[in-house]
Structures are given as structure tokens and as C-alpha cells.
Design goal:
The complex is a heterodimer of chains A (138) and B (291). Chain A is mainly beta and 138 residues long. In chain A, the strands form three sheets. Chain A has a four-stranded antiparallel β-sheet, with no helix packed on it. The longest helix of chain A is centred in the first third of the chain and has 12 residues. Chain A is built from two helices and nine strands. The radius of gyration of chain A is 16 Å and the shape is globular. Chain B is an all-beta fold and 291 residues long. Chain B has one domain. In chain B, 2% of the residues lie in helices and 48% in strands. Chain B contains one helix and 20 strands. A five-stranded antiparallel β-sheet of chain B has the order 1-8-3-6-5, with no helix packed on it. In chain B, strands 9-16-11-14-13 form a five-stranded antiparallel β-sheet, with no helix packed on it. Classes of the chains: A mainly beta (138), B mainly beta (291). At the A-B interface, strand 7, strand 8 and strand 9 of A face strand 17 and strand 18 of B.
Chain lengths: 138, 291
């Protein structure tokens, strides 16, 4: 029998990190280049948040086992900011513990359309039907 | 979001002898609305003053022969104090004839107008035109044109125009008696409908004015929304797969390419004891004892 990762365990791990605080989303400056190794906490990336934006508290945060694809998916409601003038092409998901230096950064996601530049308007993301990201067990 | 639109306005004037003109607050004013004022004053030393909290979009002193007047446009994003107020006062540096129009605009972008140009037409004809070079940021941007002229007879603004052509609608036209040449001011608006550069704007008058016309063009952009999407990021955590450990031996570990730390262990072999039956004693031979 082949070795397997148990999806439920992956889900529990993801739930555990989300439970550290309040899951949030920050739109990032176009100059931001994420570093998967060193960008550990929000304090590592906070200087690169897109000017004019504030962090969005994510609603309807769910982790779901997608057995057919062998993965655990993280999904949320569509985040948005109103009356925003900004320029961004990516966003970061992070968990706000109340202290930036202990708030873990989960992922940096590219915006498919490239650079968005709302002018005193609404900046929003229509989240993929399956979520922001998934942890695969295979 | 909705495009900016002129919703209401008020006009007022004073002939002379007072320091400033007070215009009643346009109806329906709400926090976040934009107020645009077009103010004109007459006299050689009566420069306009920017009211506290307002932005001077442009101010122009116009001298035509012995006639001298100032024309200024001002803007402000309404706050709670403005909503609570009942009127707004615009002043000049000395007593003199003043008048103006105050327009309420809904759905503006804070910090606008994005473009303004003021000019004077010195052709002395009934179709004053002004060169512009303003490009709307968004297709639904609002164009506001304000004009001021002086003349002895009453002159009216017959129509408004621009290049490229837009559908212009008059907001108001207003005149008051000063004595000698009387001011005639007006304001008109159009939806930009596209982001083509506005290169010229102007009006058609009912007659040729005695004093050249001053015009101002403001472009107030519509808010721009932006919506993006994401592709699901699907990743595999790193996995380590270990070799099994033989009984009595030392195992090795090999890093594989796959997901989280993962250990694959062999069972530990145990030699079970072999049970050996003890020899049964020989079947005894029963010997009857003597009774």
C-alpha cells in the first residue's frame, strides 16, 4: 500500500493556524516580491501593503476537504474595500494575532487580472469558486 | 458606483457696499457631496478670497478696457458642519459688487476636480471659446463649465458646446444690477461619456458682450471600481519518506519531493519462542496391590 497524507489531519492543521487570531487579507504594492522563506509574520510584509488600503477582515472562512482532488481548500467570502484609491496586483492572507510580529502570513496570491487601480471606488476580489489556496495530500 | 451629477444649486448677489456674498446651502446637501462655487466680483482692487476650508480651483483677474473683474471657482467636499450650515459666504478683499452660483454635486471623488482650466475670450463676439486640455479619468466623469461676462444690455447664454461635442445642459443663468455693466453668470454640465480629451469649450450668446467673457471648465471624475479574481493556489507540502529499520540494523533516511513530514516505518520483527512439549511420562503400568 502507498503512503498517504490524511486530509483530515491537514484540515486540522490549517484550522489550528487560523484559530491563532483573526484571518485577514491585505492588498500588496505592485513592488512587493514575496519571499516564501523569510516572510513569516505580518511585520515582515506590512511595509509593502498597497498605499491607501487597509486590511480586510475575512468573512465566512472555511476549510473544506476536497476528496476528489485530494486536498484541503481555504475559502472565504469575497473581500472588498470601499472608497479606495490604490494600485495593487496581489494580496496576502494572514492571521492577525493582535501583534504584527506574531501574526503568521499564510499565502501571497496573484490577482489574475494583473494590476487593479480603483479611484475612490470599490476594490474587490471575486474569490475562485474553490477558494484562495489548497493543501494537496498527493 | 454612480457618476457625479449636479443635484441642486443656489445663486445670490450683492450690488455693493458689503463685504461678501452669502449663498444659501443647496438643498439635499449630504456629507461627501461636492460643492462647487463660481464667484465673480467687480472692481480694480477687490480680489477674491478663498473661504476657509475651500479649495481655490482657479481665480482669474480680467481687465477689459476700464472694466475689471475677478472670477473664481472653489470646491469643497461637504462635511457635517457644511450639512448643518444654512449658507456659505464668499468674500473679496474690499467692499464691492459680488455674486455667484453654488452647486451641489453627488458622488464626487474626494480631492477632485481632476482638471480645471480658466480662460478669457478676447474675440469680442457672441461665441466665446476657450482652449482646454483635460482628459476625463473615467467615462462617466462630470464636466462643469462656468461663465461670467459683463454687459450693459441683458445678454443670455443660448447654448453651450465643447470639442468633442457633448450634450450640455444649463444648470443656471443669473444676472444682477451693478450699475453700468451688469454681470451675467451661468453654469452648464455634461457627462463626458468617454475619456476623450476635451480640447475646447464655449458658449453661444444672444448678443455680443461689451466686456470679454471668462470661462472655467472643471472635470470631476466618477469613482472607478476594480474587481479581480484569483486562481486557486494548490500546493503540496514537503514529505519525507524514511527507509525502514531492520531488527538489529541501522536505517537510512532519504528526502523525497512530496508533502509534509511523513514517516514510513517498518514493523520491528520479534522472534517468538518455539514451544516444545515436554516429554510425557511413560504410561504407568498399574499393578493391583494385594488386598
Amino acid at each position: 500500500m502507498a503512503s498517504i497524507l490524511h486530509l483530515k489531519a491537514l484540515e486540522i492543521q490549517l484550522d489550528a493556524i487560523l484559530a491563532l487570531g483573526t484571518p485577514k487579507l491585505s492588498f500588496m504594492a505592485t513592488t512587493f516580491t514575496p519571499n516564501a522563506e523569510t516572510d513569516q509574520y505580518f511585520s515582515d510584509i506590512s511595509a509593502e501593503v498597497a498605499s491607501g488600503t487597509t486590511a480586510v477582515t475575512l468573512a465566512s472562512v472555511t476549510t473544506t476537504i476536497d476528496a476528489a482532488n485530494g486536498r484541503v481548500e481555504l475559502d472565504t467570502a469575497n473581500p472588498s474595500l470601499s472608497t479606495i484609491t490604490a494600485t495593487t496586483n496581489k494580496y496576502c492572507l494572514w492571521v492577525d494575532t493582535g501583534v504584527a510580529a506574531t501574526s503568521p502570513v499564510l499565502a501571497t496570491i496573484d490577482i489574475v487580472e494583473g494590476t487593479l487601480s480603483p479611484v475612490a471606488g470599490t476594490l474587490s476580489i471575486t474569490v475562485n469558486a474553490e477558494g484562495h489556496y489548497a493543501l494537496k495530500a498527493v | 458606483m454612480a457618476a457625479p451629477v449636479p443635484e441642486s444649486y443656489n445663486v445670490a448677489s450683492v450690488a455693493s457696499g458689503v463685504d461678501g456674498v452669502t449663498i444659501t446651502k443647496p438643498t439635499g446637501l449630504a456629507v461627501g457631496d461636492m460643492l462647487v462655487a463660481g464667484i465673480t466680483t467687480v472692481g480694480t482692487s477687490t480680489a477674491l478670497e478663498t473661504p476657509s476650508g475651500w479649495t481655490a480651483v482657479n481665480e482669474l483677474q480680467h481687465i477689459s478696457g476700464n472694466n475689471n473683474f475677478w472670477y473664481g471657482t472653489y470646491s469643497k467636499i461637504a462635511d457635517s458642519g457644511d450639512v448643518a450650515a444654512s449658507n456659505f459666504t464668499f468674500r473679496n478683499s474690499a467692499d464691492g459688487a459680488m455674486g455667484g452660483i453654488l452647486i451641489r454635486i453627488s458622488n464626487p471623488i474626494n480631492g477632485e476636480p481632476s482638471y480645471d482650466v480658466v480662460g478669457r475670450d478676447t474675440t469680442g463676439d457672441s461665441t466665446p471659446t476657450f482652449t482646454a486640455a483635460g482628459t476625463p479619468i473615467t467615462a462617466d466623469s462630470l464636466l462643469i463649465a462656468l461663465y461670467s461676462l459683463f454687459d450693459a444690455p441683458t445678454i443670455t447664454y443660448s447654448s453651450y458646446n465643447s470639442t468633442p461635442s457633448k450634450t450640455w445642459t444649463e444648470i443656471a443663468e443669473y444676472t444682477w444690477v451693478v450699475g453700468g455693466y451688469d454681470p451675467v453668470i451661468s453654469a452648464a454640465w455634461a457627462n463626458a461619456t468617454n475619456v476623450d480629451e476635451i480640447t475646447q469649450y464655449g458658449a453661444t450668446l444672444s448678443n455680443t458682450p461689451s466686456v470679454n467673457v471668462v470661462g472655467a471648465l472643471l472635470i470631476i471624475s466618477a469613482p472607478t471600481n476594480a474587481t479581480g479574481t484569483n486562481t486557486l493556489l494548490s500546493v503540496s507540502p514537503a514529505i519525507f519518506e524514511n527507509a525502514g529499520v531492520e531488527v538489529g540494523g541501522a536505517g537510512t533516511s532519504a528526502l523525497l519531493e512530496v508533502s509534509p513530514s511523513f514517516f514510513d516505518q517498518s514493523g520491528r520483527g520479534t522472534v517468538m519462542p518455539v514451544w516444545t512439549n515436554t516429554d510425557k511420562p511413560a504410561t504407568p503400568t498399574w499393578t493391583n496391590q494385594d488386598k
